Amino acid sequence: MSDITIDIPRIVSPAYYPMFTSHARYLSYKGSRGSGKSVAAARKVIVDILSHSYVNWLVIRQYFGTHKDSTFAALKKAASDLGVYDLFKFTVSPLEVTYKPTGQKIFFRGMDDALKITSITTDVGVICREWIEEAFELKSKSAFETVEESLRGILPDPQGFYQTVITFNPWSDRSWLKSEFFDEDTRRPHTHSFTTTYTDNPWLNDDYIASLKDMIKRNPNRARVAVYGDWGIAEGLVFDGLFEQRDFNWDDIAALPKSVGLDFGFKHDPTAGEFIAVDKQNRVVYIYDEFYKQGMLTQQIAEAIGQHKGYGLQITADSAEQRLISELSGVYGVPNIIGAGKGKDSVSQGIQYMQSYHFVVHPRVKGLLEEFNTYVYSKDKFDNWTNTPVDANNHAIDALRYALEPFMFRTAGHYMSNQERIQTIKNLGLR
Description:
By secondary structure, the chain is an alpha/beta fold. It folds into two domains: 200 residues, 3-Layer(aba) Sandwich (Rossmann fold), CATH 3.40.50; 185 residues, Nucleotidyltransferase, domain 5. It has 15 helices and 19 strands. It has an eight-stranded mixed beta sheet, covered by helices on one side. A seven-stranded mixed beta sheet has the order 9-15-12-11-10-13-14, sandwiched between helices. It has a two-stranded antiparallel ribbon with strand order 16-17. β11 and β12 form a beta hairpin. This is PBSX family phage terminase large subunit. InterPro entries: P-loop_NTPase, Phage_terminase_lsu, Terminase_L_C, Terminase_L_N, Terminase_large_su_SPP1-like, Viral_DNA_packaging_terminase.
């Protein structure tokens, strides 16, 4: 086989050169949206397989089912972009990648089945490289250490080394990742940590960059993470302690009543569709699906509702957009769609009611999870927290509130009056 030449400065920006040049045990990259960290990591995986005959990779996410459309797809694209796709075999059962000339492998595992991580064996070389994508999803430091225990053994190359690449969006400064890899006084030895932003990705288009800059003005709290790659601040979260990300399947929620909420946006704000199942007895809401996208036209919204199997469910939409509701129903045939109830204090009352539930967010639901991590109460002029949320970064949360409306403030087919809503909240012990 002829030699393969990879020009690192051509395939990644300077911010990611250390991925390809450093022998540090840990390379930890937190970054903003569009920073290119996952693309760079995928190319690093392919390059290391090509460069070192002893290397096998373990690619980790919290939920195994999320690999196929994320890391696996990213590695296929990386191999194609580098012109070496034909040298690799990509299989989905089992989900793995094999380097044909040598038999080296890239394995995919999820922390939701940690036992499968420690039982991997290789025919060629050693599993000595690890990529943990969306590391913020990992539940704890102990979960990470379970993975680390799988990387062991004497390397056949005297110049060989073990290395773990960690990539994530830093949604909360409470994360164990901060002290483990970024705080100077506590981070692990032999760790190089980096923060990258969209400015480190020269391949972004102008519209995407404009949307990020607009976020700085319109949603500074969210921009802290999504634009600047800084740690999110958990203090003042409206739903603090009331949500979690967890994988679950349809059988878990099949018997529960379901509904859909819609919040409309367009150029700057996303249109959010949240699909929920409600366990009223145990006060748990399962958010099992979502669409969350800017620039959606009415027909595209109707198509998205159908694609996400929303037809046949009660759909409650933002009543400030009666024209869109009429078009969805009358022109595009979306059934069972009504406008959300409005009235004095209806938003704050809805949030109070929502706080009586625990929310379980499926891994495929990205927009709502981001908003849960950045939706905060406002402060007064003395820098004290108020009871009023900042009216920003809440499109998925508004859609979730609309989806919950049939279960909280509707009775006998009508939306409750203000006094009825107040009494309902009192009955729950929330006021």
